[in-house]
Amino acid sequence: MTRILAVLILILLAGTVQAQSVPVVCRPHAEITAKLEQKYGEVLIAMGLAGRALFEVYASEKGTFTVLLTRPEMKGITCIQGAGTDFTLTGNKYPKKGKAS
């Protein structure tokens, strides 16, 4: 699961130069997550911290996904960092302790 999140973050960061003309959508966290569930059937499937920033990945059974970013200084405001289709869980497992992957 952490590999999926890391790959998504790298893809999003790599695409920021091309996506600069696309407006970033920021709203209260509860408003965005309610909309993702009601309109797209997306639920939280992964989350992690990058410094003080919280990244969350929401996805649906239909394959849509959305990546959200929230920072403490944003005071409850969350921004959509990316969204797309064809989301698939890889099924990768964490390596057992003491064994290299």
Account of the 3D structure:
The structure is a single chain. The chain has a 5-stranded antiparallel sheet. It contains 2 helices and 5 strands. Mean pLDDT is 83; it is low at 10-20. It has helices spanning 2-14, 29-40, and strands spanning 26-28, 43-50, 53-59, 65-70, 77-84. The two termini are 14 Å apart. It is flat, with a radius of gyration of 14 Å. Helices cover 25% and strands 32% of the residues. By secondary structure, the protein is of the alpha+beta class.
Q: Which descriptors apply to this entry?
A:
single chain; 101 residues; alpha+beta; 5-stranded antiparallel beta sheet; 32% strand; flat
Give a nutshell description of this structure.
This protein has 2 helices and 5 strands, in the order αβαββββ.
By secondary-structure content and strand pairing, the structural class works out as: alpha+beta
Report Rg: 14 Å
Strand order of the largest sheet: 1-5-4-3-2
Profile the largest sheet.
5 strands, antiparallel
N-to-C series of helices and strands: HEHEEEE
Question: Based on DSSP secondary structure assignment, what is the total number of beta strands?
Answer: 5
Instruction: Estimate percent helicity.
Output: 10-25%
Overall geometry comes to flat
Task: Report the end-to-end length measured between terminal Cα atoms.
Answer: 14 Å
